Amino acid sequence: MLASWSILLVSLAYLCLLFAIAYYGDKRADAGRSIIANPYIYALSIAVYCTSWTFYGSVGRAASSGMDFLPIYIGPTLTFVLWGFLLRKIIRICKAHRITSIADFISSRYGKSAALGGLVTLIAVLGITPYIALQLKAVSTSFNVLVQYPDVVMPPISSNVPVLKDTAFLVALLMAAFAILFGTRHIDASEHHEGMVAAIAFESIVKLVAFLAVGVYVTFGLYGGFGDLFAAAARSPQITALFTSSDSGYGHWPTLILLSMAAIICLPRQFQVAVVENVNEDHLKKAVWLFPLYLLIINIFVLPIAIGGMLHFPDGTVDADTFVLTVPMAERREGLALFVFIGGLSAATGMVIVAAIALSTMICNDLIMPVLLRLNWRNLAEQGDLSGLLLSIRRGSIVTVLLLGYAYFRFIGESVALVTIGLVSFAAVAQFAPAMIGGMYWRGATRVGAILGLSLGFALWLYTLLLPLFALSGWLPIGFVEDGPFEIGLLRPYALFGLDGMDSLSHAMFWSLVANIGGYVLGSLMSRPGAIERIQGALFVDVSGRSGAFGGTNFWRGSATVADLKTLLARFIGARESDRVLGDYARSRDLNLDRLREADAALVSFVERLLAGAIGAASARVMVASVAKGEVVGIEEVMKILDETSQVIEYSHRLEQKSQELQNTTQELRAANERLKELDKMKDDFISTVSHELRTPLTSIRSFSEILTDNPALDTTERERFLTIIVKETERLTRLINEILDLAKMEAGRMDWHMIDIDPRVVIDDALAATSSLLTSRSISLKLEADPWLPHVYADRDRLMQVIVNLIANSVKFCDDANGEVSILAGQLGGRFYLGVLDNGPGVPLDDRQIIFEKFQESSEPLANLPRGTGLGLAISRQIVEHFGGRIWVEDAPGRGAAFSFTLPVSRAAAVAAPDMESQEAL
Amino acid sequence: MRGPKRIAEGSVATFLFGCVAFSPPFLAIFGAEVFVFGLPLLYLYLFAVWGLIIVLVAWIADLGSASRPDQNDKPLTGRTR
Questions:
Q1: Residue A914 in contact with residue A791, Cβ under 8 Å?
Q2: How many CB atoms lie within 10 A of CB A283?
Q3: Secondary structure (3-state) at B81
């Protein structure tokens, strides 16, 4: 048994829980440890989009026209696809200008125009009223249905009930109280309501879980899953029509998608949660898919619940808008029904609280304050703290908005389905889209254009959508709809100028948007923007590029005293808060505000932006103008400033490019210079080494010759010995000069190469023959291990032999004195010809393995007892091998000693012949 | 510079895909009285396309965090110095 007091108790307990969450969120925010600074809470708070419309109305819509409930959720998904173009830019603009509502956004873009801000506020209030009525209707209906438990009876029409006994009226008052508690406890310059966001996010979870609970219960509890449910549905042609195209068709889907695309950014409450309450732009990246995912999940069970309800109540006595509640009730699921009621309450309160707060900010900042300021700001200026006045205005606005919503519900909304009411609101706020999006991308859009477009669009919305609803509810003669005003057929609101055959919503959207966009574009083209309009236009369009350099809009030419500004700020946001922000400002700029008398333009602009956060851009301008002497700069000056700055930017951009190029060139030059220096040093080293190397044998030749000349009496054996030395040294000299010439030729690329296809085996044998005298003179054993078949190489025979001889001579020189061993390995390595010469000498230290292939470089190991080489053999070998396209290196031989190896590419002829050879061997 | 451009292109392509997939002609085609796995074809189609778009958006937004999308946001003064 559910008594009304128990339902009320649970509801109140739930609302108290919400308030506790909000209170905790605010406390944490004050302590600087925000609980909402993550993308998940952000995405959940955007889900305030899902209201009673979604919770109760979607099922009702699905029961009457099938999948028609869905485009309202596909539109936001598509808008979020374009987040990089729209949402992110809006957030950046709002952060740069401290914009706190959509009215502020549009007014600020078009020259901080108070008229425009007021117009937007008016449209928003009138447009959102039906939407709030929708929530009131849903809560009161669901309450009245639930108290009848266990009977399922539709409640009576509430216009027969006195206002004070009407549930909807009590709900409206309760929600107003709640919105006041949440949103207007104090005036904050940044207009963040962290506690409210936390509560909204929590409500989003509750409504999602409640709806899914019913969905799962209907699909899997009453039926055996989706298959069973749809099979049951398929037996009824009336229900089958809901999910096949035999229904009315999908001509209105584009309209619905377009409407909801605009609504997700133009609805004041969506603007509030998605833009104003955004604490970190990076949260968008996750929210852009989390929020659509939320929409998708909550919509999965809409059709199943609608089908379940239709099968359950086939006679049509139960309103389909209540199926979510009545199906569990009819099945005697008391707990589930109560949970559903709380979920619906969540959906409604979330929307009402945020919408009321957003609208009250707009009413206060963009409607009432400008009027008050204009009427007698002098009187106002004499009062002390104005933050109290601001709060009262906002609280009054919240109550007004909710009472308006109630009035709409009582007089018009009673007979209309939830979704129809909501769509009227969507159509109203969609009027903001042209001025808003146009203003972000079109510099030339003007205030006149925006006002013209908005008023025309709004007028047509009023005429084609709202007034007919008044007529249908009996507040206007019905002839207004059927025959047109004064029986002028062309002016029939549902078939304006004879445009017949469209559904009323598409019809209204067509005319209002045509008039809106047409007026906006024409008005902008026909008028000249004022100074501030131009500046703001440039700032809005280029927000991402200039946010750093142009953060402040310094179009105050005059100045004000610091004390005046302080007082002004203190009056609107409180003395403590104003001291704090001004202190922060002074610290960040190294100023001492106590000693500074005259504030510069930057400080004046800073104060203006702070004020804009609290009372709106237009009012802030008026207030600052009241204390700032001097005037706003004129149009010529603005243009000059803008031109100059853009020229400077362009110029510095080009300079930057040039300097980048210069830097690159310098770097290249420096590198080339380094290389030249290195080469020069190498040349010097080479010459000095060569001279040194040549002088050694020359000195010995000369000294022995002198001995012979000076001592004719020398005995024959002695003479013979000296002559032999002279001959040997001469030979060495010749060899050295030959090698230097060879190397020089090779390095200069003037060597004559006789490249032919050769069998390396023959060359190896020749080289062994040539070096045999070396071996015998030092009793060294030599082993040759060659593959039976060696691949042919393409090389110069003599040069290749020179390399092998060099390597053998080198190994012989360094191998063990007592029992020297030199082995030659020949074969294939990785598809190349391989030859290695191994000795059992001391080996080559790791550090020397690169440099021994350089000219005149020998291993640093002392080789006192060994004959000196020319120091060119390995260098020449490397030149030759590399010329053949091979590689030469040294490593440790197995055991001890060094292994000099080189590889050469196999000649093309051999590469082709090789497989044949192998196959023959295999045979 | 590659990252932001890719995001812009990907976003616009996904958006256009959505516009086409949810256009009346396609809805009429998939509105046939056909059941797939016991589910009406239209129901299945709408949620599948929707889910696909969400996956694409998540993927594209992720491209952005991988390749620093906010290069344009450096204040000009910082670059010219």
A1: yes
A2: 20
A3: coil
Residues A203 and A44: their CA atoms lie apart, in Å, by 9
Fold of the CATH domain A637-747: Helix Hairpins (1.10.287)
Contacts with A234 from chain B: Cβ below 8 Å: 35
Query: Do A230 and B35 make contact, defined as CB atoms within 8 angstroms?
Result: yes
The DSSP 8-state label assigned to residue A769 in this structure reads H
pLDDT along chain A (923 residues), means of 10: 77 88 84 81 91 88 85 91 86 83 88 86 89 86 81 66 75 86 69 83 93 91 86 81 66 87 90 87 87 92 89 81 86 86 90 89 86 70 69 89 88 69 86 90 87 92 85 75 75 77 82 92 86 76 50 54 77 77 78 70 76 74 68 56 65 82 90 88 79 82 87 84 86 83 79 85 86 76 84 87 87 79 87 88 80 68 50 83 89 83 81 44 37
Instruction: State the Cα–Cα distance between residues A32 and A369, nearest whole angstrom.
Output: 31
Q: Specify the CATH superfamily of domain A4-430.
A: Sodium/glucose cotransporter (1.20.1730.10)
> Would you report the helix, strand and coil content of chain B in percent, each value rounded to 5?
80, 5, 15
Residues forming CATH 1.10.287.130 domain(s) in chain A: 637-747
CATH 3.30.565.10 region(s) of chain A?
Answer: 752-922
Q: Is A191 left (phi over 0), alpha (psi -120 to 50) or beta?
A: left
What gap in Å lies between CA A390 and CA A441, rounded to an integer?
Answer: 34
| Residues of chain A neighbouring B79 (CB-CB closer than 8 A) | 656
Q: Which residues pair with A100 in a beta bridge?
A: none
User: For residue B39, which residues of chain A lie inside 8 Å, CB to CB?
Assistant: 226-227, 230
**Three-state DSSP class for A229?**
helix
Smallest CA–CA distance, residue B35 to chain A, in Å, is 9
User: Which helix (H) or strand (E) segment is A899 a member of?
Assistant: strand A898-905
- Between the alpha carbon of residue A889 and those of residues A56, A178, A852, the distances in Å are 83, 86, 10
Distance CA A869, CA A462 (A): 106
Which residues on chain A are in Cβ contact (under 8 Å) with B10?
A: none
Q: Range(s) for CATH 1.20.1730.10 in chain A? A: 4-430
Name, in order, each residue with C-beta under 8 angstroms of A567's C-beta and a sequence gap of 6 or more.
none
Fold of A752-922: Heat Shock Protein 90 (3.30.565)
Q: At what angle do helices A58-65 and A418-429 cross, to 10 degrees?
A: 110
Contact B76 A82 (CB under 8 A): no
Check if the beta carbon of residue A69 is closer than 8 Å to that of residue A61.
Answer: yes
CB distance B7–A84 less than 8 Å?
yes
Asked if B11's CB is within 8 angstroms of A84's CB, the reply is yes
**Shortest CA distance from B61: residue in chain A:** A285
For chain B, the domains span 2-68
